[in-house]
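Q: Okay, next protein. This is Quinone oxidoreductase from Hwanghaeella grinnelliae. I've checked the sequence twice, so it should be correct. Can you predict the 3D structure?
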Amino acid sequence: MAKVVRIHSAGGPEVLTYEDVEVGAPGPGEIRVTHDACGLNFIDTYHRSGLYPLPLPSPIGLEGAGTVTELGDGVTDLAVGDRIAYSTGPIGSYSSERVMPAAKVVKLPDGIDTKQAAGMMLKGMTVEYLIRRTYAVKPGDTVLWHAAAGGVGLIACQWLKQIGATIIGTTGSEEKAELAKAHGCDHVILYREEDVVSKVKELTDGKGVPVVYDSVGKDTWEMSLDCLQPRGLMVSFGNASGPVDNVNVGILAAKGSLYVTRPTLMTYTATREDMVESATALFDAVGKGLKIEVNQSYPLAEVQQAHTDLEARKTTGSTILIP
């Protein structure tokens, strides 16, 4: 029997149940995978809570890495024993084994182990589409990144530094500020102690930034808009503090003909071509020195505690679950 985490109702971490499951043989175009590790991501808490509803009961988790153990008919570009990883589902990565579409996984290059991969694919590919495609950051650009010491933030700071950008990051503590700086963040604003808008304007000679990357949501919405220069782009890609509701689009005109987008990794990797291109760009960045730091690891059976710690902002960098 394999182990799997399911939810039978939406709610807090207590709705996550650790269960036994039979894993069948892969069908046409599918593979059977044994997971070495599963990635823990904020989107998992949205699925669990019902913010992003799932048909219940449901497995959970979008990211995993492991080894191919069986091939279904028609799978020709993978072999038993290949090390693979994925970050866009289908949902159900919180498991020791599973069957899934071969088209949804990529082979891991030498030098990247499966535990590292489980902590980097979703976050790293998120950074890829945000800084290369949602807004193509150029050398010399100054960007504002909220939650700069989080899993996505630490990857973003390093990758933006590879591009040649200047990074202004926000964090909630001195400890997290030092972590962000160590990963390439040029200026860190302690949002609990400093006025973020005033500090951004000071650092940009009053101009503001051309783009804000905001995964926090409602608590930073207005602040983020006020940090933008005229015709700047607000990239709202998460809801850690809750969703942004009841927006009057007229505020975008009043604050300087601003643009707003709410992108998702699923859209930017909807085709296999886009998914492979995104993963390849991530692997290349790692090859150039981008470090993926898995700072927390929990047994899969302790998934409730992992979700509790993530939502309490007790984690930094990436977190994995070990089946």
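A: Here is a summary of the prediction. The mean pLDDT is 95. The chain is about 30% helix and 25% strand.
Q: Noted. On to the next one.
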